[in-house]
Amino acid sequence: MSEKNEILDEVSSVIKPRKSLDLRYLLQLLLIISLVFVTVFPKMYLQHEIYYKSREIAKLQREYDSLKEENEIINAKVEAIKFKNQILDTIF
Questions:
Q1: What is the pLDDT of residues 45-87, one digit of tens each?
Q2: Measured between alpha carbons, how far is 23 from 31 in angstroms, rounded to an integer?
Q3: What is the DSSP letter of 92?
Q4: What are the CA-CA distances from residue 79 to residues 65, 84, 89 (Å)?
Q5: Which pLDDT belongs to residue 28?
Q6: How far is CA 56 from the centre of its chain?
Q7: Is the pTM of this model over 0.90?
Q8: Distance between CA atoms of 28 and 23, rounded to whole angstroms?
Q9: How far apart are CA 25 and CA 29, in angstroms?
């Protein structure tokens, strides 16, 4: 019977290894988590900043294009008024 118990103890130790969570395991886990955080956080921050800067750039580009078109329209109106004034001045 003694041999049977010894064999059962050995088998149970192989099948179910019992590990206790100690301070070293906890420190390793915290170190891994902090390393992951340190490597991932700057990337997320930079992506966030790039996204918002690109939105600002796109907005400014749209405004620039709009103002450029408006300037061309105003210049065309000014030229038309100048032309009209030159013709009216030569008639009178």
A1: 999 999 999 999 999 999 999 999 999 999 999 999 998 888 8
A2: 12
A3: -
A4: 21, 8, 15
A5: 93
A6: 15
A7: no
A8: 9
A9: 6
Q: Please name the helix (run of DSSP H) or strand (run of DSSP E) that holds residue 88, with its range, or none.
A: helix 23-91
How many angstroms separate the CA atoms of 88 and 77, rounded? 16
What six digits make up the tokens of 49?
């900043």
DSSP string, 4-72: HHHHHHHHHHHHS------HHHHHHHHHHHHHHHHHHHHHHHHHHHHHHHHHHHHHHHHHHHHHHHHHH
Counting Cα atoms < 13 Å in the Cβ hemisphere of 26 gives: 4
Give me Rg for the CA atoms of the chain. Answer: 39
Q: What is the mean pLDDT of residues 7-24?
A: 75
Dist CA 80 CA 72 (whole Å): 12
Q: Can you give the length of the chain in residues?
A: 92
Chain-centroid distance of CA 38 in Å reads 16
